[in-house]
Write a structure and sequence with these properties.
Length: 85
Amino acid sequence: MIQTKVISEMWGVPVYTDSGDYFGQIDDAVLEQNKVKGWKIVATEQSPIFKVLRGARGVIVPHQHVRAVGDIMIISSAVVPSVSE
């Protein structure tokens, strides 16, 4: 059975990659014709991509890269920018 959620209930949900790395938190959704087109993810200071963003408030992850949604969101690690030390 398909379960639905109100989009505003997703704000603040933690986001992880499919390889288990913490990515950030959901801040907003990008809608197009009543469908979710993407998710705005805010990188928190605990996120390894925080250094990569350098002042950007977050990133937009296309919805097709979302693997699962529930108490957390799991996204494809293919969309994660590489972090070089």
